[in-house]
Amino acid sequence: MVTADNLRFFLEVARTGRLNEAARALGVDHTTVGRRVTALEKSLGQRLFDRSPSRWRLTEAGERIVPHAEAVEAAVIAAYDARPAAFGPLTGSVRIVTPDGFGAFLVARHLVDLRRDHPQLDIELVTATDRESVAARHFDVAVTLMRPAPRHLSTRALATYDLRLYATDSYLATAPSLSDLSDLREHTLISYVDALLDVPPLRVLSTLPHTQKVPIQTNNITGHWLAARSGLGIAPLPTYIGEADDTLRTVLPDQFSVRRTYWLVMPRDLERLARVIVIERFLRTIVARNPHMTEVPADLRSTEPK
Fold first, then answer.
1. DSSP class of residue 234?
2. Residue 270: DSSP 8-state
3. In sequence order, what DSSP letters do the residues of 76-93 get, joined into one string?
4. Strand pairing of 153-167 and 293-295?
5. How many CB atoms lie within 10 A of CB 299?
6. Residue 57 β-bridge partners
7. Residue 163: strand, helix, or coil
8. Residues sharing a CB contact under 8 Å with residue 215, sequence separation 6 or more, in sequence order
C-alpha cells in the first residue's frame, strides 16, 4: 500500500541523495529509511532509485513520483499548519533560496529578527545564482532574478534595484582617468565568470556601448565586492551593497545604472502555509526598510506569466 509516511521517506532521500542524511533529517536510523523506500517501490512495482554507496539517484520512475509525493506532503503539512491570520510561533523548517547578493547581504543580517519571532523554526538559507536552485523545486520560498514559467509556481514581483559601478579611491587614484564609459577599456573590471553564468539579468556589462574585457571573474557577488574594496578594480554592484560600504565610491553614476527586478516565487501547493506566508512578509519587510530598493506596489504584483 502506498502511504503518506512512505512517500515522506522517499522525498527526503530524493532531496538529500543520501540515506544517512535522510535518516538524520527524519530522526530515524538509516535502515528504517531504506526499508520504507523499498516498501514503497514494492507497492508501486517500480524501482525509484539507482543505489550506490555514495549516492541514491532517482530513476525516471522516481522523477515522475516526486511531484505527486510533494502534493501529498503539502496536503499533510497544511492540515497541521493552518493557522489564523495572526500567526503564533512556528515550528518545523523552512528553506529560502535567493541570489547570492540578496541572501548574503540582506536576508542573513535580518535572520535574527525572524529567529526572535519564531525560535522553534529551523531556517535554511540557500544562496545560489543559477536557474537550477529553483528548477529543482526543493524550496518553500525563493527570490529570483528571472520570472519562472512553470505553472506549479506562484510568482509575483518583490522589488526593483539598481546596479552601478564601484571602486575604491586608492584604485582610482592610480588608474587611468575616467570621464566616459569608453574609458573603462583601460581599467580592471570585476564580474561573473561568463562561461558559468546562466542568468541573463546578471550580464550587466553587456549593456556597455563597447566590447569590454573583464580580467577578474568570480562566480558570486561577495567575491566582486571583496575584490573591489581591496582596490583591485571596478565592479558592478547592487546599490544596496555599494552605497552601504564607505570604502567604495560610485564610478560614472550619470552614465551607468542598470535596473533589475527580484521575483518572489513559491510552489502553489505551499503558498497558503503559515511558514510560507510569514517568510513572504519577512522578505517584504526587508525590502521596505532598505533605502536602495523599491518595493513593487501590491496592485502591480502580477501572479500570472505575461
1. B
2. T
3. HHHHHH---SS-----EE
4. antiparallel
5. 6
6. 50
7. strand
8. 188, 189, 233
The phi, psi pair for 267, rounded to 5°, reads -60, 135
Q: What is the DSSP string of 150-162?
A: -TTEEEEEEEEEE
The count of residues in the chain is 306
Phi, psi dihedrals of residue 92, rounded to the nearest 5°: 90, -150
Percent of the chain clearing pLDDT 70 (strictly above) = 89
d(CA 191, CA 203): 9
DSSP letter at 144 equals E
Query: Which residues, other chains included, contact 14 with Cβ-Cβ below 8 Å and sequence gap of 6+?
Result: 49, 58, 62, 66, 69
What's the rounded Cα separation, in Å, for the pair 226 and 241?
Answer: 11
Computed over every residue of the chain, the mean pLDDT equals: 87
- What is the tens place of the pLDDT at every residue in 15-48? 888 888 888 877 788 889 999 999 999 999 999 9
Report which of 243, 234, 259, 245 is spatially closest to residue 181, judged by C-alpha positions: 234
Overall pTM surpassing 0.90 (yes/no)? no
CA 302 from chain centre, in angstroms, equals: 20
Q: Which residues pair with 142 in a beta bridge?
A: 97, 265
Phi-psi region of 45 (alpha: psi -120 to 50; beta: other; left: phi over 0): left
Cα-based torsion angle of the residue sequence 93, 96, 101, 104 in order, rounded to the nearest 10 degrees: 0
Model pLDDT for residues 247-270, shown as the tens digit of each residue: 999 999 999 999 999 999 998 878
